[in-house]
Amino acid sequence: MSQQCIKRTTLFKIPKEEDIPKALEAYKELERTAIKDGKSYILSCDAGKIINTSEPRSQGYTVCGQTTFSTIEDVHYYDNECAAHAKLKSIVTPIRTDAAVMLFESDRPPPPSY
């Protein structure tokens, strides 16, 4: 059995199409710059434009981001202390109208970094 990890999925409602690339680039920067105790602590980080926005089940969300962590303590650090995450929030908060965050445990390893 694989070791469990924590996956944090965030959905954003970013109504202006021209603002979506700003959010996606912020996730790329997060992946490059998120540091805890002098080293990278996010196991994987990905974000993309939601492609089924014309369907009611998308509920108006336009961007999905997912970060994977080894421990719930790393999630708490990310939420409360991580400078890279604070920068992402400073970029995305002004351009979004809503967000939803879900955490779940997974025994599937994160995908390899490219």
Main features:
32% strand, 4-stranded antiparallel β-sheet, two-stranded antiparallel sheet, alpha+beta, Dimeric_a/b-barrel, 114 residues, globular
CATH class: Alpha Beta
Q: Give the amount of beta strand, in percent.
A: 25-35%
- Compute the gyration radius: what is it? 14 Å
Tell me the number of structural domains. 1
Pattern of helices and strands: EHEEEEHHE
Protein name: Stress-response A/B barrel domain-containing protein
InterPro entries: Dabb, Dimeric_a/b-barrel
Domain Stress-response A/B barrel: 6-104
Q: Could you characterize what this model shows?
A:
Residues 6-104 form the Stress-response A/B barrel domain. Pfam families: Dabb. This is Stress-response A/B barrel domain-containing protein. The chain has 114 residues and is α+β, with helices and mostly antiparallel strands. The protein has a single domain, classed as Alpha-Beta Plaits. The protein is built from 3 helices and 6 strands; from the N terminus they run βαββββααβ. The chain has helices at residues 20-33, 72-80, 83-92; strands spanning 5-13, 35-36, 39-40, 42-49, 63-69, 98-106. Strands 4-5-1-6 form a 4-stranded antiparallel β-sheet. Helix 1 (20-33) packs antiparallel against helix 3 (83-92). The chain is globular, with a radius of gyration of 14 Å.
